[in-house]
Amino acid sequence: MRHVLGALALTAWPAMAQMDHGDMQMQGGKPPADARDPHAYSGGVSLDEGPYALPGPRQLKLADEHLFYGVLAERLERVDNGDDQALAYEVSAWAGRDYDRTVVKAEGDIEHGRLAEASTELLWSHALTAFWNSELGVRYDTGHGPDQGWLAAGVSGLAPYWVELDATAYLGDDGQTALALEAEYELLLTQRLVLQPAIELTAFGQDDAERGQGRGLSELVAGARLRYEFSRQFAPYVGWEWSAALGKTADLARDEGESTQDTRWVAGVRFWF
Fold first, then answer.
1. Residue whose C-alpha is closest to residue 145's, from 176, 169, 167
2. Taking the CA atoms of the chain, what radius of gyration do you get in angstroms?
3. CB-side exposure of 84: number of CA atoms within 13 Å?
4. Is the model more confident about 12 or about 122?
5. What DSSP element (H or E) covers 145?
6. Has residue 83 got a pLDDT over 60?
7. Are 223 and 268 within 8 A, CB to CB?
8. Contact, 182 vs 199, CB < 8 A?
9. Residue closest to 124 by CA, chosen among 141, 104, 140
10. Burial call 193-208: b when 16+ CB within 10 Å, e when fewer
11. Residue 219, Cβ neighbours under 10 Å: how many?
12. Is the pLDDT of residue 176 over 90?
């Protein structure tokens, strides 16, 4: 069979070699007079104005013209430190477009049916790069000592190796300043089982005995939560968390007869929509 095909190919080759390629219709040539310029949209021409505006009501909207929103309950958990139990929450919500969004962050502890400590932030978030946002706004704290208001400025984003980072500086009442650093990482043990270690460090610019704030490094919180994602939007978890007061803040806690370290077991649910 191969010999027959080879003979046919040799027989056809002289005829193919003698074909006049000038008679062949090749792809290309001049476009029609009414063809659209494929580069016109980069010259400031839009779908609403210019030579290519579509007639009638507009049907197409681009992604950066839509208003998006999201709600994430990062922590909604029951806490047990061996001596007492409490409820803790950390929830964030945002609404906006690609570059600018309004963000609300809230976290706190509920003990014996009442709000023991709470922190709420209202921020304007602006995209700096594909993975980093700047955040400007206000924060309000209640709980330990008198209530306190802050101005907030920081950055948040995704660092190399998929580490999520938040760094925020605060200016509060009576010239008090603070700095909060947070880092967390999601380790996929399987496609549904996720281990999430996290660490948080807080520092203050001056002493405030009334609120239990000491100058310098103030508090370190570290822990890990293991969750099972029944879906990407709903995942129960269990975990462990350790916190310690540092420096002058630890001295103020000792003066009040309070512990400077705390170990807590947690169980809760994480969800978003």
1. 176
2. 31
3. 9
4. 122
5. strand 145-159
6. yes
7. no
8. yes
9. 104
10. ebebebebbbbbbebb
11. 22
12. yes
Which residues, 6 or more positions from 26, have their beta carbon under 8 angstroms from its beta carbon? none
DSSP label of 16: H
> What is the residue-averaged pLDDT of the chain?
87
Statement: residue 208 has pLDDT above 50: yes
Q: How confident is the model at residue 32 (pLDDT cuts 50, 70, 90)?
A: confident
What CA–CA distance (Å, rounded) separates 268 from 92? 16
Task: Check residue 20 and give its pLDDT.
Answer: 52
Residue type, 108: G
* Alpha-carbon distances of 173 from 36, 149, 208, rounded to whole Å: 61, 6, 10
Provide the percentage of residues in the chain whose pLDDT is more than 70. 81
Question: What average pLDDT score do residues 202-220 get?
Answer: 95
Alpha helix segments (H runs only) across the chain? 2-17, 247-255
C-alpha–C-alpha distance, residues 164 and 182, integer Å: 8
Burial class (CB in 10 A: 0-12, 13-18, 19+), 218: buried
* Calpha distance 113→95 (Å, rounded): 31
Q: Which domains does the chain have, with CATH numbers?
A: 65-272 (2.40.160.40)
Tokens of 118: 């709470």
Looking at residue 247, its pLDDT comes to: 95
DSSP 8-state symbol, 58: -
CB atoms within 10 A of CB 147: 11
Q: How many residues does the chain have?
A: 273
Determine the average pLDDT of the residues in 142-161. Answer: 95
Distance CA 2, CA 233 (A): 61
Segment 101-121 mean pLDDT: 95
pTM of the model: 0.78
Amino acid in the structure at residue 4: V
